[in-house]
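We both want to read discrete structure tokens more fluently, so let's practise on a single case. Once you have written the record down, we can walk along the chain together.
***
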Amino acid sequence: MGERAKAVVIHGLRDLLGTSLVTALGARGFDVSAADQTSGPAIALVDLDVPGSAHAVGRAARRGWTVIGLASDDVAVAAAVAAGATGCFPKSAPLPKLTDLLHAAAEGRQVMEPAERERLQTLHRAREERRQSWAERLKQLSPREREVLALLDEGLRAGDIAGRLFLSVATVRTHIQNVLHKLEVGTQERAVAIYRAMVGPVR
């Protein structure tokens, strides 16, 4: 890393963890800077649990920065690795271990084992293939069936949906059965889970 520590750009951390992290990094010789104030080599530390984090990882990687993701689950980590993250770190781990990891990254050392990287890339590919399959199935729904599915997502029952859409309960139940058939699932709960996964915020 030389005499001067690399700048660290933090994306997405706005709570107590972010404040504590800035203090800890400063104590270890890092210069925490805003993205638009950093022109040279830098380490981007990205909170992967906020919407848009994968895009932030990609932007930082394209600038040639070393990207470290902070996350709580493998899905977010896998997406970050696919977008160009060099390594990742669990939010529950102690801050001193994170600063050690950042020093290793600043020195150009490997911060993720190749086997772990491959596992995460495989996980991401499988997830994207599954989402593509769900997207194709959702396209088969008629506007009315999609409307019924959205109301199921709100927690409404068939009778409530019938009242909301001015339809008979029998018609609503037919729509629900069509939704289950087109999504290739056996329960309303599974249909709603797919709907939420596809319309929820993208990382």
User: Anything to note?
Assistant: Confidence is low (pLDDT under 50) at residues 1-5. The radius of gyration is 22 Å.
